[in-house]
Design a protein that fits this description.
207 residues, alpha/beta, Rossmann fold, binds 5-O-phosphono-beta-D-ribofuranosylamine
């Protein structure tokens, strides 16, 4: 059913190759998707994620922690810059920094993050490696609403991926990323078109 909402404005934050970002950029080409990527930000320079945005004609910005005298100042500057693009939704797509209090105050309930593991298992920056080392038979990816913890927020969607006997971290992470991109595109689109309601951690589509 076509949505009667106006296209939702997405600001996407990245730290690396930006393949999740690319999937969102591609999906947003279709007006029926219900969202447009209005800006892409990063915590570091010279990454493929920023190059992807530039090739698509999307404004970019970089705010590195080193540019600021404290983590708090960085967080506030990041939040100010994001706010200037008037986003309806902020998508952390492979953004390898924790956002702080200022950021969360400004964008609470409308910032989502994708993590390459099945939350609450294996939080942090080494999800695929930790899952492999533990010996789990399935892992996957989780899209969640960001809160003040490390990969602890209410879960919007999860995708399950098998672990193969001969996997190394790279092959496993690549398999996760294929499922992660589909999950991200499908669910960010639904979020944009339908909104969400969160009750006792349970996320349901529909405002
Ligand atoms: C994704 O698996 C994301 O969940 C993790 O890093 C990866 C980023 O991939 N934090 P890309 O930059 O979107 O290609």
């Amino acid at each position: 059913m076509p949505s009667s909402r106006k296209p939702q404005r997405l600001v996407v934050l990245v730290s690396g190759s930006g393949t999740n970002l690319q999937s969102l950029i591609d999906a947003a080409q279709d007006p029926a998707y219900g969202a447009v990527v209005v800006a892409v930000g990063a915590d570091r320079d010279d990454i493929e994620g920023l190059a992807r945005a530039e090739r698509a004609g999307i404004p970019t910005f970089v705010r590195t922690v080193k540019q600021f005298t404290s983590r708090e100042h960085w967080d506030r500057a990041l939040a100010d810059t994001v706010a200037a693009f008037e986003p309806d939704l902020v998508v952390l797509a492979g953004f390898m920094k924790l956002v702080g209090e200022d950021f969360l105050d400004r964008f609470a309930g409308r910032t989502v993050n994708t993590h390459p593991a099945l939350c609450p298992s294996f939080p942090g920056t080494n999800g695929p490696a930790d899952a492999l080392a533990y010996g789990v038979k399935v892992t996957g990816a989780t899209l969640f609403v960001v809160d003040g913890g490390v990969d602890t927020g209410p879960i919007v969607a999860q995708a399950v991926v098998p672990v193969e006997d001969d996997d190394d971290v790279e092959t496993l992470h690549e398999r996760i990323k294929v499922a992660e991109r589909d999950m991200l595109v499908e669910n960010v689109g639904r979020l944009a078109r339908e909104g969400i309601t969160i009750t006792d951690r349970k996320v349901r589509f529909g405002a």
